[in-house]
Amino acid sequence: MNIFNEVGALAISTRLQRLSDQFRKDGVLIYQHNGISFEPKWFPVIYVLHKKESLGIMELSEEIGYAHPSTISLLKELEKEGLVESFKDQRDERKRMVRLSEKARALVEQMQPVWEKIRKTAEQIIDNANNLLQAMDETEYQLKKEGFFERYKRMENEETNAAISIVDYKPEHAKAFYDLNYAWISETYEVEPEDEKTLSNPETYYLKDGGAILIALYGGEPVGTCALKRNGDIVEMSKMTVSKSMRGKKIGDLLGNAVIEKARELGASKVILYSNRKGSAAGINLYKKLGFEEVPLTEHNFKRADIKMEMELD
């Protein structure tokens, strides 16, 4: 058995390509056998224009299921062969239409009986317990509902979320809290004295006055942090970061939602934060998605801060 038959769905693209190549190769032989100069790759455009008479480029792309650039490339080849011709739409001269040429229409007439034999031959091949056409219909339906890449990302996020836990800070998290935050700060900004103060003694800076620190664990290892410093019924959110190797997995969303819920548990009426527009653009987008709004910048402890945001809690 071929190795690609053994690995199952992992090789689906390879096996479909292999099937396609075999059908195309034999298709060329069939046309040659009948004395017809025709490439199987032309079939989608020729057949659709045979049925629809004329179409705009975008309409044709949608009909054959090809990307616009691929359709344009195929049309150029067919125009060179004298099989299609373009013209302006009478209702909108900016719109380019295409149709079969006289040469192509004559060729279609010649190919009709050959197509019928090809159809019957293909039906023999797929007439089995696992009907290929039905499987293709079902697969195309699934891809239309959710593309392969989108489905991959969703499943990856689901697996990541299942392995992620958000926990309250413990003394054994001190080194991870320091290292994770020092890494992102030093990468983009100057590490300021206030940073050293908060990172070196987070328990005193955040927890002593009734604040909180949350740690994101992936497989038991710290990969993200976020802290709340309390000032009466207002809490300031800071030191929110995710390990560089774990970014893009929505861990920031999980941390952000968890820290807002933590602020509610603390009885806070408002959450504020300070950030930097340029260096933390992705973070600011996340804060907006979480429900934070920009407010006038007031006194703060960091030189890099150039934006203040806040969220009123119910």
Description:
The protein has helices at residues 3-6, 12-33, 43-52, 57-64, 68-80, 102-126, 132-145, 148-163, 174-188, 193-200, 202-207, 251-265, 281-290; strands spanning 54-56, 84-88, 96-100, 164-168, 212-218, 221-231, 234-242, 270-275, 293-295, 307-312. It has 314 residues and is α+β, with helices and mostly antiparallel strands. It has two domains: 3-145, Winged helix-like DNA-binding domain superfamily/Winged helix DNA-binding domain (Arc Repressor Mutant, subunit A), CATH 1.10.10; 164-312, Aminopeptidase. The strands form two sheets. Strands 4-5-6-7-8-10-9 form a seven-stranded mixed sheet, with helices on both faces. Strands 1-3-2 form a three-stranded antiparallel sheet. The termini are far apart. This is MarR family transcriptional regulator with acetyltransferase activity. GO terms for molecular function: DNA-binding transcription factor activity; N-acetyltransferase activity. It comes from Dyadobacter jiangsuensis.
